[in-house]
Amino acid sequence: MTHFDDLMAFARETRALSLVAGRLGWDQETMMPRGAGEQRSEEKAALEGVLHRRRSDPRVGEWLSKINAQDLDPIAQANLGHIRRTYERSTMVPADLKAQIARVSSKSHSAWAEAREANDFASFVPVLSEMVDLKRQEATALCAGGPIYDALLDDYEPGATSQSLTAMFDALRPRLVALRAKALEKPAPKALEGSFDESEQMKLARIVAKSFGYDFKRGRVDKAVHPFSSGSGDDVRITTRTVAEDPFNCLYSTIHEVGHASYEQNVDPQYGLTYLGRGVSMGVHESQSRIYENQIGRSRAYCEWLYGEMVKAFGDFGLADADEFYAAVNIVKKGYIRTEADEVQYNLHVLLRYDLERQLIEGTLEVADLEEAWNARFADDFGYAVDRASNGVLQDVHWAVGYFGYFATYTLGNVFAGCLHQALRSAVPDLDDALARGNTGPAVEWLRENLQRHGARYEPREVIAKACGFEPSEGPLLDYLEAKFTALYP
């Protein structure tokens, strides 16, 4: 075997173990007994220790030093680049720090869930403060004298910087605020009302998942407090949630997570258990979940089909036709929860979190002051006060488990989705005819062929540009939102 063969065999084992670690996280959110939290934290810390030792193993450095990338084909070169980057970042962070972060993340997750249920942020402050301190230590080890926040951002969106993202977000904000104000000034369309059987919601969620091509032979749908997708290749699982009074929450959470899952299921099989056999970044990942959920799933054409499925599941549920259904699905209204926000306001929720988490990591905001800062910012951006912690600072799990640098990728994903949608509509001009029959095949196949199958072979912005035929920017997203919601709220 060559040095590259040895390196790839070692990397495949590491990748397999990382998927096992992900399965522990899936189990913790879906099926783990409540009393197992402390033991699970030790299990996750032990496995994270093993993974960190493998990623920083001196043999990896030796193999890398002996391999001439010019002797490799482009796919092998791409794998080598990911392995080198992971090795270099792993050797910069002490193994005991990585294990401690894993241990505290499990403990913090349980503390967050309890604090959220009790609407008691103060009880969560000690463990979140511990997590923030650990992530500051990690960022300091990684930043090499550069911006400390960017070191964490690089885990989720390689190549992105807070400077470039802030410029993009500043360009988004004025038009989003203006569009939000215009929509809220208009009479609201008829909203969905009533109670919808939660078991029927889950049945319909599975029908919807199948309509987007989700492969149940290689996946499953379960319930969780915070919907998510987990896994890669031949084992890609999703979760959703049900609320009796809001079936849209279940259905569109499902579509969102199917977007993530489809990306993982549709990566070229030859990349399986390698560094290329996964989504390249969270921003690109989010572009798939958002284009599935919004540009496709909330389109007038798809809503025509989904309305019929709702009637089959629930009978007469109070909306007269597909037009009323489409307006209700896309209603712009006041609300606290990011994951339930309409397309117009969603990114305003993200920008709030992006700014606060940068301040936490940079040390200009302490955890003890976070709730007050959140509430003040929310009042400024949305014009009304947060009523309780579970609707405010405790609504997201990300900070509890140490996902600092993650939130920015949600808005970046929306920007990428806007670009992809523009290109998709140009490539498939009769798409609405298929969507009105519940056939997402033309859209899903275009995304699979132009983006999903590549996995992590290309850099994030590069794969978007290749798919679209132009460099990504915020313009297509803003144009799409203004056209759609100006028509809905004339």
From TrEMBL:
<keyword id="KW-0645">Protease</keyword>
<dbReference type="GO" id="GO:0004180">
    <property type="term" value="F:carboxypeptidase activity"/>
</dbReference>
<dbReference type="InterPro" id="IPR001333">
    <property type="entry name" value="Peptidase_M32_Taq"/>
</dbReference>
<comment type="function">
    <text>Broad specificity carboxypetidase that releases amino acids sequentially from the C-terminus, including neutral, aromatic, polar and basic residues.</text>
</comment>
<keyword id="KW-0479">Metal-binding</keyword>
<protein>
    <recommendedName>
        <fullName>Metal-dependent carboxypeptidase</fullName>
        <ecNumber>3.4.17.19</ecNumber>
    </recommendedName>
</protein>
<keyword id="KW-0378">Hydrolase</keyword>
<keyword id="KW-0482">Metalloprotease</keyword>
<dbReference type="Pfam" id="PF02074">
    <property type="entry name" value="Peptidase_M32"/>
</dbReference>
<comment type="similarity">
    <text>Belongs to the peptidase M32 family.</text>
</comment>
<keyword id="KW-0121">Carboxypeptidase</keyword>
